[in-house]
Amino acid sequence: MDQYRVFGNPIAQSKSPFIHQQFATQTEQRIHYQSELVQLGNFELAVRELIAQNGKGANVTAPFKEQAFNICDELSERAKLAGAVNTLIFNHGTIYGDTTDGVGLVSDLLRQKITLQHSKILLLGAGGAAKGVVQALLEQSPTSLTIANRTLSKAQAIVSQYPNQAIHAVTFADTEQLSFDIIINATSTGLSGESLPISNATIKSAVACYDMVYGKHPTAFLIQAKTLGVKHIIDGLGMLVGQAAESFKLWRGVSPDIEPVLTTLRTQLK
């Protein structure tokens, strides 16, 4: 049976094994997918061991996405731009790396009838989570994509990868006088519970606020947005299932239906 893994540290919280087994049952694919806790410094060894055990592919989560990028023999264009990989495909000893986070985010926004074309989008943060979705957002032809970060140079570094496109870098403070249609939080504040240094007026201007983090309860950012009357409040669960579906399609050549899996996961969170 074809073997797949999700590598991370920590990894016990991962929903990926459940998601992929659901996809496999639904599409009648014979695979075995499980999570594996990898000690820091042992990532490449874990990958090589999986290949030796009839491994066909793997998902990669924190903190190994950059290491995964570095061990690939070939990379997709979107992975090259992101500088990180969350999906590995093994083929006759070669390792191909891709990132499906951007597809997961965009497909979730479109599924919820959020219009990206001709929209003004604010992306908060300039770390790996933000880098992984920029290209996919730009492909939707927004009026503008603004990346806001505490350290301006980090946002500028991302912007420099996309010459001649409607993409800008600002600090969090710079957003105070600006308005946006969609605000996407790609910072870690959703995990820490901190509030974002974004003004109420900026948040209030949006039609949709999206946080890549998901959980039993809404994040501080989404609670703030809801209080301010933002119409669409969306967490990152759909992005998680969407990026998994794209990985599954890359491995198996079939597109699973995410809706029943998403419904089950949402129920489990309650």
Descriptive key words:
12 strands, 13 helices, Rossmann fold, 270 residues, 22% strand, alpha/beta, 6-stranded mixed beta sheet, globular
Estimated structural class: alpha/beta
Low-confidence stretches: none
Distance between the termini: 34 Å
> What would the average pLDDT be, to the nearest integer?
95
Shape: globular
The CATH topology assignment of the largest domain is Rossmann fold
Roughly how many Å is the radius of gyration? 18 Å
Order of helices and strands: EHEHEHEHEEHEHHEHEEHHEHEHH
Q: What is the highest CATH level, the class of the largest domain?
A: Alpha Beta
The helix tally amounts to 13
How much of the residues is beta strand, in percent? 15-25%
Order of the strands making up the biggest sheet: 2-1-3-5-6-4
Describe this structure in words.
The chain has 270 residues and is an alpha/beta fold. The protein folds into two domains: 2-99, Leucine Dehydrogenase, chain A, domain 1 (Rossmann fold, 3-Layer(aba) Sandwich); 102-236, Rossmann fold. It contains 13 helices and twelve strands. A six-stranded mixed β-sheet has the order 2-1-3-5-6-4, sandwiched between helices. A six-stranded parallel β-sheet has the order 9-8-7-10-11-12, with helices on both faces. A hairpin with a 2-residue loop joins strand 5 (87-91) and strand 6 (94-98). The longest helix is centred in the C-terminal third of the chain and has 16 residues, at 237-252. It starts with a strand and ends with a helix. The mean pLDDT is 95.
